[in-house]
């Protein structure tokens, strides 16, 4: 089972407070569903997740209209919860996911606990 850490003070982030003010619990749910998708994709591929794919997956998972999820996600990109430059290029990423994913792959490459085992045996010299 894979997991990701969530900062317990995330609700104190002004961007998150603005998200809840603008979209309510629906925005909060979309935010977390997006984080799940970003972490899962990043841990599996090391690459950014296509925005359209993330939106479709989140809409399906939350049983929401794809356009509604896209509107909320676009708002989040405008507010800085997603990297705006990457968003405009069709990819989804943010600082929370990027840092955790980079840490994960560093652990994998070093063969440490908490990462998937390397595909070939590590030889100590």
Radius of gyration: 16 Å
Distance between the termini: 32 Å
What general outline do the C-alpha atoms trace?
globular
pLDDT < 50 stretches: 120-125
Characterize the main sheet. 2 strands, antiparallel
Helix content: 55-70%
Total E-strand runs: 2
Provide the residue-averaged pLDDT. 78
Please give the order of strands in the largest beta sheet: 1-2
Q: How much of the residues is beta strand, in percent?
A: under 5%
Order of helices and strands: HEHHHEH
Helix/sheet category: mainly alpha
Number of helices: 5
Any overview of this molecule?
The chain has helices at residues 14-45, 51-62, 66-79, 84-88, 95-109; strands at 49-50, 91-92. It has 125 residues and is mainly alpha-helical. It has a two-stranded antiparallel sheet. α1 (14-45) packs across α2 (51-62), α1 packs across α3 (66-79) and α2 packs across α3. It is globular. It starts with 13 loop residues before the first helix and ends in a 16-residue tail after the last helix.
């Amino acid at each position: 089972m894979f997991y990701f850490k969530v900062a317990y003070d995330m609700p104190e982030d002004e961007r998150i407070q603005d998200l809840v003010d603008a979209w309510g619990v629906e925005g909060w749910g979309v935010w977390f569903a997006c984080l799940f998708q970003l972490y899962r994709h990043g841990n599996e591929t090391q690459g950014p997740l296509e925005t359209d794919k993330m939106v479709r997956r989140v809409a399906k998972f939350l049983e929401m209209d794809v356009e509604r999820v896209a509107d909320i996600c676009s708002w989040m990109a405008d507010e800085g919860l997603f990297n705006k430059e990457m968003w405009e290029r069709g990819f989804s990423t943010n600082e929370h996911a990027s840092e955790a994913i980079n840490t994960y792959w560093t652990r994998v490459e070093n063969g440490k606990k908490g990462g998937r085992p390397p595909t070939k045996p590590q030889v100590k010299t």
